[in-house]
Amino acid sequence: MVTPVVTLFLQALSRSAAAAIELLGTAFGGIVVSDCFSAHNNLPTQQRQLCWAHVIRDLTAISERPGATAELGMELLDLPQQLFAPMVPLQKRHDRLIQVGAELLADPQSV
Which terminus of the chain has a lower count of CB atoms within 10 Å, N or C? Predict the structure, then answer.
């Protein structure tokens, strides 16, 4: 779970729908990012986002099949790359700001 202040990661002994409901409660109003596991099927589709790493892994597997399926897989694999390409400069800027912040914390006198 993510809020402006905290991110919660929980590991349970079970990946059941009951475990998901126990974590989220029955009145959860946020969005869950997850794989395609059926335990999340109780959530409305408007509250579910598939994990991009899982989507890309599945599309990669499709692109490695023979014939026309591979061609389709390669075309589909291009879509996430197009979607995320504009984010690369932002990620680099973010990483640099984190680095500068860490350096300032390590040596406040350097300012």
Answer: C
54, 37 Cβ separation under 8 angstroms? no
**What tokens appear for 28 in the block?**
């959860």
The verdict on pTM exceeding 0.70 is no
> From CA 38, how far away is CA 58, in angstroms rounded?
16
**CB of 71 within 8 A of CB of 50?**
no
Which one-letter amino acid corresponds to residue 103? E
Tens of pLDDT along 20-35?
888 888 888 888 888 8
Q: pLDDT tens-digit profile of 78-103? A: 998 888 888 888 889 988 998 988 88
CB 80 within 8 A of CB 59: yes
DSSP secondary-structure letter at 7?
A: B
Which is it for the CA torsion 99, 5, 15, 80, positive or negative? negative
